[in-house]
Amino acid sequence: MHGIMATGGTGEFPHLSDDERVMTTKAIVAGAAGRVPVFANTSACATHDAVRLSLQAAEVGADAIISVPPYYFPLSEPALFSFFTVLADRSPLPLFIYNNPGYTGNPLSPSLLVELLQHPNIAGLKQSESDLGHFVEVVYQIRSARRLDKCLMTGIDSQLCASLATGGDGIFSTAAGIVPKQVVEIFNLATAGDFKAAQLAQLRLQPLNRFLEYEPGYVAPAKEALRMLGWEVGTPRAPLPNLTDDERTRLQRALSDVGVLPQVESRST
Q: 246 lies in a domain?
């Protein structure tokens, strides 16, 4: 992998105390040992909390911060612009904006993202928006219209090949926490210009990506998949549910289809 995101959604940041978030980032920084950059998620509902978490991330050695918009209260575009501007101004680390409207309830429009990406301490974007057209518009505005040197990443595994084909730089990936080799393969093939092979590699991952992107949510499947591969990482914290027996069977079959577990015979009913 080319980087690690600490305490993101897969890392259950809403269920961690502030101390646990800082401790986790510190442990990941130590494990990475300078080999790849560490992006510390400092998302919070209040601006002062996001700033404080960002300062603490810098103290424990993170290389950059990443934040979703504040969630719960609906916010206007001027309020969202102010949040990210203040965070970028006060953070000693480069900031990546994380647009995830399905989870935050506060979408960032392409025009707002383009405006924010002109800030000198906003280094890039993680775009977890189901409409790929939003990402393409941001890429067009940043690459062609303004020619800014910003890192534009998707956050949706099934969009990796398509986003790279339209000028994206990579992905903050859930699947890469389970099958990193396969995700890097897509990236390497696409950046080498072999989009036909990248497309085929992308489609081979779809049985797993489908499981991570739709029901029952991605935390329990990610943890259960790692357990199936021999990594005991515990269970989700309440109130997130564990997988049902049927979901486990379907996940095992998805990992088999991807080729990282022995083939599971499908049963017809």
A: no
